[in-house]
TrEMBL record:
Pfam families (UniProt xref): Acetate_kinase
Site annotation Transition state stabilizer: residues: H180, R241
Native source species: Fretibacterium fastidiosum
Gene it is expressed from: ackA
Localization annotation: Cytoplasm
Name assigned to this protein: Acetate kinase
CC terms in the record's Gene Ontology section: cytoplasm
Amino acid sequence: MKILVINCGSSSLKYQLFDMDHESVLAKGLVERIGIDGSQIKHTKTGLETLVKQTPIPDHKVAIKLVLDTLQGSSHGVLTSLDELSAVGHRIVHGGEDFASSVKIDAKVLEAVKRCVPLAPLHNPANIMGIEAVLEALPNVPQVGVFDTAFHQTMPQHAFMYGVPYGYYEKYKVRRYGFHGTSHYFVSRRAAEMVGQPIEKLKIITCHLGNGSSITAVNGGKSVDTSMGFTPLAGVLMGTRSGDVDPALLPFIAKTEKMGMDEIDMLLNKKSGLLGISGTSSDLRDVEDAALKGDKRAQLAVNMLNYDIKKFVGAYAAAMGGVDVLVFTAGVGENSIPTRAAVCEGLDFLGIKIDPEKNDVRGKEADISAADSRVRVLVIPTNEELMIARDTKRLAF
């Protein structure tokens, strides 16, 4: 069974083609600069060098056709016919309160996704364009939507509500939604497999740390709290996002700097975080290098990030009444040895201790717990695309 997984952005389209009989990747790629000069496709057939082709790609419809043609190409193709495609799975950023799990896409589902556009105006429209483009190109191939927000729909109301007048929730569904749900779902279940216990009996804290980061409390396999909120801006310091700030800071900056709300939004989402504090880069690797060379602002940014993560770990251990497993995943979580060490330092009182030698690992599964650690500390590379492919296989037929 061959399943195509698609992740549409506003000007990009990532894809992977899976052979789900073996859960192996046959090909993957990226279409960049859709609707912009210099558009191109980067396509990699497993075992071969990447093919790069520059060509005009005015919209997502053309991008989808290019992907399908490339998958059938003579040199780097893996399909002899599109009839080999069993189903297509889509990453959809926001499902609001309508979707607590992945679903097979039909007209009603597509309309519900469109109703969520005000909640994710930068992401859902691109996801919708991808679905509609596939529907036109492959009208008889089933499609499945996998939502970033779905895993967090198990949060209790006291965890997802904000302390603003209740009417805003009734009218506009203003609440905490959380994101990276597919990643948190995947790594929490893999963690249970690694420790050899049923997930229903475990209290797990998953740290998805990358350019965008979120921490989630997973109790008995269900998300009970998460650091991102109504938007992906909330929570810990990120690459260019501020994370949590005092809401009164926004009107103060707006008045003193004479900035409009769009400018404030840009400030918090694109000019803050590691970039805003360090003045060096939004990439933690660059910031860590600058800190090692004595850059005090870079070191401050590193310290703030590690402190933020540690606070959420402690808070979620309290919320769940303990913790059995702590998981690090995504680009920073999987690769930054100093971040993992700094976050775990001083958490002995929670039973969290890591072995420095075991922690000397990047980009692969590892148990980095010290021998006397009561909590298992794991590094687990996330695989959101495989999770989407699995759900697509389960739901498409």
